[in-house]
Design a protein that fits this description.
Layout (H helix, E strand, L loop, with lengths): L10 E10 L3 E10 L11 H6 L4 E6 L4 E6 L3 E7 L11 E7 L4 E6 L10 H5 L6 E5 L4 E6 L3 E6 L2 H6 L17
Antiparallel strand pairs: 1-2, 1-5, 2-3, 3-4, 5-9, 6-7, 6-10, 8-9
Length: 178
């Protein structure tokens, strides 16, 4: 409760595109906590989707209304920005195949402990329901791991050569499991 007796928590809206099963594409915004004065950054979509709560609030564009979505039914969330490549991790280029037939190429960047920084380790982190994939061009996609069919490693130059679309023979041998 604030000094005026209000129960509202100050938040900002972030425009997103959700892909929800079985509804399909949903345009709208999610709500993120504003940064505290002593913090450099506020809450990110990644934080909201990976917290323990089962539902997320979405302000839909059409029809304009608030809706609560079960995170288990969200296939992916797309937005611009927030692809902070300085997250302290080693970029891992990969191609992700989803159950709906979508194929996305990008980089996973996350700081993991020494000796546990392989693509395999990142995919199997039990604390996170969604994978963060940074796309060429600055977009970010958060992917529900329950809808991922397979993840293939790519050579980083495959992303630079053909953004979003690696050709034959461009997949490589990044550290997967060894």
């Amino acid at each position: 409760m604030d000094e005026n007796g209000s129960l509202q928590v100050p938040k900002k809206q972030m425009p997103v595109t959700l892909w929800v099963h079985p509804e399909g594409q949903v345009l709208g915004a999610i709500f993120l906590h504003l940064p505290h004065p002593d913090q450099a950054a506020g809450e990110q979509p990644w934080d909201v989707l990976n917290e323990a709560a089962d539902f997320i609030v979405v302000k839909r564009d059409s029809p304009e209304e608030l809706c609560f979505y079960n995170k288990r039914s969200i296939v992916r969330v797309e937005f611009w920005g927030g692809g902070d490549e300085s997250a302290g991790g080693r970029p891992l280029a990969c191609r992700i195949n989803l159950m709906d037939g979508s194929v996305l190429d990008g980089q996973i960047v996350k700081a993991l402990p020494q000796g546990r920084s392989r693509l395999y380790d990142y995919m199997n982190d039990p604390a996170e329901r969604f994978l963060k994939l940074c796309l060429p061009g600055g977009g970010v996609v958060l992917l529900n791991k329950n809808y991922v069919v397979s993840i293939l490693p790519l050579q980083p130059e495959a992303l630079a050569a053909q953004p979003g679309e690696a050709g034959p023979g461009q997949s490589g041998s990044l550290e997967l499991a060894a």
